[in-house]
């Protein structure tokens, strides 16, 4: 019986030593794997940071180019034209038509007009103001699109 107990104790010691060696080996492998993983994570983070810096620099350059393009375009807007454009106002006598047209309320502050003939109105200032507002609005839209991130 003593021999049986001795063999059981020996077998238990062998199992305990085997489990201990396996746990030790597992810990060593876990530490080695964790170190490799951390190295890969650090490398990936460094690459991502470098890429982000490169993209930020390219975007800053894009913003500067967009602002310069807008300033250049604003500088090259065509000047306002001052030659008059006369239109015939409704409710006034047409030079080519016999009789007179029935009177209607005028939307203009001066129903007599400011042109060379009766009922003519110069719309050039309004056209030029619209052209400038539209041109600047278009340049603002183009500038916003130029600044959109790549």
Explain this structure.
The structure is a single chain. Helix 1 runs antiparallel to helix 2 (124-146). It is rod-shaped and about 140 Å long. The protein has 2 domains: 1-58; 77-88 and 111-150, no CATH class. The chain is built from 2 helices and 2 strands; from the N terminus they run H-E-E-H. It has 150 residues and is mostly helical. The longest helix is centred in the first third of the chain and has 74 residues, at 2-75. The chain has helices spanning 2-75, 124-146; strands spanning 86-88, 120-122. Residues 98-109 have low confidence and may be disordered. 65% of the residues lie in helices and 4% in strands.
Brief rundown of the structure:
This protein is mainly alpha-helical and 150 residues long. The chain has two domains: 58 residues; 52 residues, no CATH class. It contains two helices and two strands.
Notable traits:
single chain, 150 residues, mainly alpha, 2 domains, two-stranded antiparallel ribbon, 2 helices, rod-shaped
């Amino acid at each position: 019986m003593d021999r049986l107990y001795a063999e059981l104790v020996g077998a238990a010691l062998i199992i305990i030593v085997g489990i201990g060696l396996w746990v030790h080996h597992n810990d060593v492998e876990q530490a080695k794997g964790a170190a490799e993983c951390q190295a890969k994570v650090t490398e990936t983070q460094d690459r991502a940071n470098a890429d982000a810096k490169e993209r930020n620099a390219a975007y800053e350059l894009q913003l500067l180019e967009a602002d310069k393009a807008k300033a250049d375009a604003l500088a090259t807007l065509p000047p306002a034209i001052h030659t008059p454009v006369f239109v015939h106002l409704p409710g006034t006598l047409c030079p080519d038509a016999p009789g007179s047209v029935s009177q209607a309320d005028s939307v203009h502050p001066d129903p007599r007009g400011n042109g060379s003939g009766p009922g003519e109105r110069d719309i050039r200032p309004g056209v030029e103001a619209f052209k400038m507002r539209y041109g600047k609005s278009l340049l603002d839209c183009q500038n916003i699109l130029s600044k959109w991130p790549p």
